[in-house]
Specification:
glycosidase; GH; EC 3.2.1.86; 12 strands; 13% strand; GH_1_N_CS
C-alpha cells in the first residue's frame, strides 16, 4: 500500500462497517438452517443460555437475511468500500456433521457477496463469529474437544472453495482470546463458565482453535492465493492503577494475556510467559505431535482487532479505587468519560493499541470493530441527531491518523455496526451502534424501517475525503 503521505490515511484505505450473522440475519430456521449456539441466548449480560425463554433476540434480529440488498445499497450510499460480516456455520452445515453442505445456505451468501461486489464493496468474512451448530455442542461439548477441529476445517474448506474470488479477507475466529475469558468463553469456545476445571478447559479449547486457525490459513492460501487470512483479537489498552511496581506488573500481566493469542497466530509459537502461567495454574494443554509445527508454518497475514475501551488494573483493590460493574473492565478510570453502558471512552488508547501491536508484530493492522453503543432518540420530524456518535467516531479516527503518522501500517477500519443490530452482550436493540437506525425495540417489535442518522451523512463525507474531513 502506498503510504507516502504520513499525515493522513493512505490511498486505498478500506472504510466500512462490520456486523455478525447471528446479530443481524434472523431467519434462524429458514433455508435448511438449524439452531446455533447463538439461538439459545436470551437477553441479559452475556446472557442467559436457555432453551425455554419466551424471547430470543437472534431469531428475528433485524431480518438482514431478507433485507440485505436494501442494507447494502445504504452501505454503498455511505461510500463503503469494505463490509465485514460472518457466515453462520449452521446455515452451511446445520448439525455440523453433514458430509455435504446445505446448498441453500451456500447460495444465500454467494448472492450476498455478489451483490456487495456489484456495489463496489470488498468482503471481509469472519469464519467463526460466536456461533456454532448447536447439535455439535450438544454431542461433543466445547472446543476443548479436539473433534471440533475437523468439523471446523470441513466448513472452512467448503466456504473458501465456494467463495474464491468473492472474499478478499478471512478472519479465522472472532475475538479468539475470549476463549479464555470468563464470562464470555461460552461465546468463543462453547464452554460453560460454570464448568469444573474451567481454566484447563478454556486453554485447551484455545489450543484447538490455534491449530484450526493455522490449518484454515493453510487452506485459504492454497485455494485462493489472492486472499489474505488474519487473526482477530479483542484489544483493550491496559493501564496500571498507580505507579506502584505491583500495579505496573499487574498491567503487564494483563497485557500478556491479550497478546498471547496474537503472539501464537502471528509469531507461530507459544511464548515462554504463558508456559509459566500454565505451570502456576496447573494447566496442562494436551498437544498432538505436529501441532506446534502446524502453528509455526501457517501464520496469519495480518492482525485485526476490536477496540472499544481501555481498562485499569491493580495488584489489589484499595480505596479510593472504584470497581466497575463490568467484570471485563477492572477498576474505574476517573479521568475518562463513559458510555450509557459504562464503557470508558478512550480514543488515545486506540493510538496506543495500534502502536503497541505494530511495534510487536510489524504486520499490517485492521481495526475491524469500534463504535459507540448508545440510546438514540427519534425526533418528531424523524431525524436522529446522534452528535455523540460523531464525536466518538471522529476522536477515534483522529487517533488512527496519529498512529499512521507514527508509522503504523493500518490498512482499514470497519466500524461496529453500521446498522443497528442485536447486542451480543445484552441482547438489546436499544444499545445502538449504527449510523442507520432500525425501528425495532428490545423485543423485536416495530416496523424494521431503516432510517439514516445524522452520523450517516458525516461518515459518508469522511470516506469520500479519505479521512480528511473528520
Amino acid at each position: 500500500m502506498n503510504n507516502d503521505k504520513r499525515s493522513g490515511f493512505p490511498r486505498g484505505f478500506y472504510w466500512g462497517g462490520a456486523i455478525a450473522a447471528n446479530q443481524a440475519e434472523g431467519a434462524y430456521l429458514e433455508g435448511g438452517k438449524l439452531p446455533s449456539t447463538a439461538d439459545i441466548k436470551s437477553q441479559g449480560f452475556f446472557g442467559g443460555l436457555r432453551r425455554d425463554a419466551d424471547f430470543y433476540p437472534t431469531h428475528k434480529a433485524i431480518d438482514f437475511y431478507h433485507r440485505y440488498r436494501q442494507d447494502l445499497k445504504l452501505f454503498q450510499e455511505a461510500n463503503f468500500n469494505i463490509f465485514r460480516t460472518s457466515i453462520n456455520w449452521a446455515r452451511i452445515f446445520p448439525t455440523g456433521e453433514e458430509k455435504e453442505p446445505n446448498e441453500n445456505g451456500l447460495q444465500f451468501y454467494e448472492d450476498l457477496f455478489r451483490e456487495a461486489k456489484s456495489d463496489g464493496i470488498t468482503i471481509m468474512i469472519t469464519i467463526s463469529h460466536y456461533e456454532t451448530p448447536l447439535a455439535l455442542v450438544d454431542k461433543y461439548g466445547g472446543w476443548d474437544n479436539r473433534a471440533f477441529i475437523d468439523f471446523y476445517l470441513r466448513f472452512v474448506r467448503t466456504i473458501v472453495t465456494r467463495y474464491k474470488g468473492l472474499v478478499k479477507f478471512w478472519l479465522t475466529f472472532n475475538e479468539i482470546g475470549n476463549a479464555a475469558v470468563v464470562p464470555i468463553c461460552w461465546d468463543a469456545a462453547c464452554i460453560d463458565p460454570k464448568s469444573d476445571h474451567l481454566l484447563q478447559r478454556m486453554y485447551q479449547a484455545a489450543h484447538h482453535q490455534f491449530v484450526a486457525s493455522a490449518l484454515a490459513t493453510k487452506i485459504i492460501h492454497e485455494i485462493d492465493p489472492d486472499a489474505k487470512a488474519g487473526a482477530m483479537i479483542a484489544y483493550k489498552t491496559v493501564y496500571p492503577y498507580t505507579c506502584k511496581v505491583e500495579d505496573v506488573k499487574a498491567a503487564e500481566d494483563a497485557k500478556r494475556k491479550e497478546y498471547f493469542f496474537s503472539d501464537v497466530q502471528a509469531r507461530g509459537y507459544y511464548p515462554s510467559y504463558i508456559r509459566r502461567y500454565f505451570e502456576e495454574n496447573n494447566i496442562h494443554v494436551a498437544m498432538e505431535r505436529g501441532d506446534e509445527e502446524i502453528i509455526r508454518q501457517h501464520r496469519v497475514d495480518f492482525i485485526s482487532f476490536s477496540y472499544y475501551r481501555s481498562r485499569v488494573v491493580s495488584a489489589g483493590y484499595e480505596e479510593p479505587a472504584e470497581k466497575t460493574t463490568d467484570s471485563l473492565e477492572g477498576l474505574v478510570n476517573p479521568y475518562l468519560p463513559k458510555t450509557d453502558w459504562g464503557w470508558t471512552i478512550d480514543p488515545d488508547g486506540l493510538r496506543l493499541a495500534l502502536n503497541d501491536l505494530y511495534d510487536r508484530y510489524q504486520m499490517p493492522l485492521f481495526v475491524v470493530e469500534n463504535g459507540l453503543g448508545a440510546k438514540d432518540i427519534v425526533e418528531k420530524d424523524g431525524s436522529i441527531n446522534d452528535t455523540y456518535r460523531i464525536e466518538y467516531l471522529s476522536a477515534h479516527m483522529k487517533a488512527m491518523k496519529e498512529a499512521i503518522a507514527d508509522g503504523v501500517d493500518l490498512r482499514g477500519y470497519t466500524m461496529w455496526g453500521p446498522i443497528d443490530i442485536v447486542s451480543n452482550g445484552t441482547g438489546q436493540m436499544s444499545k445502538r451502534y449504527g449510523i442507520i437506525y432500525v425501528d425495532l425495540d428490545d423485543y423485536g417489535k416495530g416496523t424494521g424501517k431503516r432510517i439514516k442518522k445524522k452520523s450517516f451523512d458525516w461518515y459518508r463525507e469522511v470516506i469520500a475525503s479519505n479521512g480528511e474531513n473528520l
